[in-house]
Structures are given as C-alpha cells and as structure tokens.
Design brief:
alpha+beta, 2 domains
Length: about 425
C-alpha cells in the first residue's frame, strides 16, 4: 500500500475509525467513557497509518485494525471480549455498507471515478463527508432514543448467547469484508458486474436476517425478564397488603393497651407508651409522604419484612424525591436490592447488631439514597460485588448489585461503596437532582 498523507490520517482515517467504534458501541448498548473511545479510535487510525508503509493490498489493513480495536475495548474499556468483538463487527458492517452506498453515489454526482478519488488526497477527504454526516446523525439518534440490540445487564443470558453471536457476526463480517476488499480493488468492475451485485444483495439480506434473528431471540429473553420483574412487584404488593392487615391488628391492640392504662389512671405509663408508638407512626407517615408511591409501598413492605426477620430498619427521610427523573420501577429496583443486600448482611449477627439504616436526602444538587449496615466486606470482595454473577452465597445469585449499578448509571448517577471493620458497610447512590442533568 502507498503511505497515507498525514492530512488524510487526521481528516479521514481518524473520523472513520471513531465513527465505526461509536456505532458498534451504540448498537450493543455499551457506554464506555468518551475519552477512552477517542483514544482507542486515535490508536486504531494511527495503526492504519503505519500499516500502509508495508507492501500490502489496499483495504487489507482492516484485517489488523479491527481485532486491535476490539482488543483495546477489552483492555481499556473493560468490556467483555465477545462484546468488544460484536461491537467492532457491527460498526464495520454499518460503515462498510454506507461506504458502498455513498462512494458510488458521490462518484456519479461529481463525475470523478472512484480510483481517481482514492489517488487524490483532496477528493479522498471530500468524498466521505456526506457519509460521515449521515453516520454521525445515526449515532446521535441511536444514543438519544436508546436504540440498541442488547446490553450486558438486561439479559444475563447473553453470557450464553455472546459467543455464538460473536461467531455469527465474525463469519458474516468476513464475507462482507471480502466484498469490501473487492470493491476497492476493482470498483468499476464491481459496479458493472450484475452477478456480483446480486451476490452483494444476497449477503446484505443475510446480514439483515441474522441481525433480526438475534434481535428476536434477545427480545424474547428480555420479555421474560420483564415478566419476572412484574411478578416481583406483584409479590411486593401482596406482602404490603398482608403488612397493612397486620398493622391494623396491632393498632387495635395498641388502643386496648392505652385504654387499659388510662382506665387504671397510669397516666405516665400511658404517655410513655404513646410516645413510643408515635415514633413508629411518624416513620410510617414520613415514608408515605414520598413523591414516589411505588417506593413508599416498597419501604412499607421492607419494614414488615425486617420486623419478621428480627432486624431493625431505621429510615431517615429528608427529601420527598419530587424532582427525581427516574422511573418508579427502576427506583424501587435499586432501593429494594440495596435493602435486601443490607438485611442479608446482618441476618446472621447478634440481635444488637441487626440494624439497617436507610437515608434519603439531598446534597449539592444530588438526590442521595444511602444504606448502612454493621457488616464488613474485605477489599477482594468489595472490588467484585458489582460484577454480574458474582456472589458470596450459593445458588442463582449475583444479579442484585449488578442491577443497581446498571440502573443508576443509566440515569447518569453513580454508586459508591465503603466498608470498615468497625463502622460497617455503606452503599451510596447519587442521582442528578435536575431533570436532564
């Protein structure tokens, strides 16, 4: 291959690599930091720049460039290797397909042959501009509408599907790569050969059908996941109904005790009893004042669950979360998983240590939800608790905290965790306080 002029590296190769990477990540639902993506695209484009000094056929640089980009997504962005491969393959399929559409179109409009455009640095920069503009708008649309094929949490089953999908995408990618290579080697023959055009159409149809099949398979699994979540919330409502009935029964008992104390003229004991009862009623009243009824119902349920398990659940509510732009179901999932995790941590302790604290407040423009318990996590466990499938307990576990991290970060929030042998373990969820922040 001929050496690439430096201006083409900055104005054509780097933007193309960046767009390819972003499209693949958008389609798979992965959201690594922008700085890391830009760095990876810069390294990938620079690698392509260096490869061109070697005697290789035109277009063959992608055989080296694509695996390197996938490897960097795996190392730098900490994506699963199969997810990095699928992202790069999808990005390449979209970019190569758009090139085979836009470059002949630009050639017909300008009257300049494709080979002439490849040989002239100026035209080589100008020809891809409409394609880059289209792909950039596509990326913005995919991001804003949150359109993606899958993501790593919504379907834990992707651990099983990931490798077959990667193999399928790699196979299809190789076929498309062959047409892509032939397209740049003999562009004029490619456009005039009807057999090749028919084969290309067949390949494109196969690509579309493969993507649709993958989408359908994953959508069915996602629907099963939604049904499980709905069943979880239904069970919470049923528990809440039982707790309300129990509280009604307890309230009648409390009235009888107060009536008996007053009848026997034990005013001091009656006052003390009422003060103790009032504190419990005040906590319940504060919980019911939350602007998220679903969360209020969940906290009432968890209060009853904690009592049944001989755990003291102390709720401190200093904000009603009225302006928090988070769907109620997601918020209930986050708080429910945090409380479940905290109660499981203290369930085996002595009664004096079975205390879980939940605090809801605002600070520095953030909504903060914080749980604290007396348990302790060593560093080697604390560093793995958000990994999907990791759990210190046996059984089908390791989803709750991974769900918390995914749901919070999806809304531009963050999850912090600290653990100390004497002070216990604290989970802190921070959400932006203003809509769209």
């Amino acid at each position: 291959m001929e050496p690439m002029p430096l201006c083409i590296f900055f104005l054509q190769s780097f933007p193309e690599t960046l767009i390819l990477t972003y499209i693949g990540l958008a389609l798979t639902g992965a959201k690594p930091p922008n700085r890391q993506v830009i760095l990876i695209a810069l390294i990938g484009a620079f690698l392509s720049y260096l490869i061109r000094v070697f005697p290789m056929p035109p277009g063959s640089n992608v055989f080296i460039q694509l695996p390197v980009i996938a490897l960097m997504l795996f190392i730098i962005c900490k994506l699963p290797l199969w997810l990095a491969l699928v992202s790069v393959i999808l990005g390449f399929l979209v970019v190569s397909s758009s090139e085979m559409l836009f470059i002949p179109l630009m050639s017909d409009i300008s009257g300049i042959s494709i080979q002439e455009a490849l040989d002239t640095p100026l035209w080589r920069i100008l020809f891809p501009l409409p394609e880059f503009a289209f792909l950039t708008l596509l990326i913005v649309c995919l991001r804003r509408k949150q359109i993606h094929i899958f993501n790593t949490f919504d379907m834990p089953e992707l651990k099983t599907y990931g490798k077959p999908l990667a193999i399928l995408g790699f196979s299809v990618g190789l076929v498309v790569l062959g047409f892509y290579y032939r397209f740049f080697m003999e562009p004029e023959a490619f456009r005039s050969d009807s057999i090749l055009a028919v084969l290309l159409a067949v390949i494109l149809v196969a690509v579309v059908l493969s993507l649709l099949l993958s989408w359908k398979m994953i959508s069915m699994t996602r629907q099963e996941r939604r049904l499980e979540l709905q069943q979880f919330h239904i069970s919470n409502l049923q528990e809440m109904t039982q707790i309300i009935k129990a509280q009604r029964h307890d309230f009648i008992n409390h009235l009888q005790v107060i009536y008996g104390l007053v009848s026997q003229e034990h005013a001091d004991q009656a006052k003390l009893y009422i003060n103790t009862l009032y504190k419990d009623v005040q906590v319940t009243s504060n919980v019911l004042q939350l602007a998220v009824p679903e969360l209020s119902a969940l906290l009432l349920v968890k209060t009853g669950v904690a009592t049944a398990r001989n755990i003291s659940l102390v709720i401190s509510q200093e904000s009603d979360l009225s302006a928090l732009a988070v769907p109620p179901m997601e918020l209930a999932t986050v708080v429910g998983n945090l409380l479940n995790n905290a109660m499981e941590a203290v369930e085996s302790f002595n009664p004096a240590l079975r205390t879980v604290r939940l605090k809801i407040y605002e600070k520095s423009g953030l909504y903060i939800i914080q749980t604290q318990n007396s348990g302790y996590m060593p560093p080697e466990i604390k560093n793995k608790i958000f990994e999907l499938g990791f759990s210190t307990k046996t059984g089908d576990r390791g989803i709750g905290l991974a769900s918390v991290k995914y749901q919070v970060e999806k809304r531009n929030g963050m999850v912090l965790v600290s653990s100390h042998p004497q002070k216990g373990t604290r989970f802190t969820v921070c959400y932006p306080g203003r809509r769209g922040a």
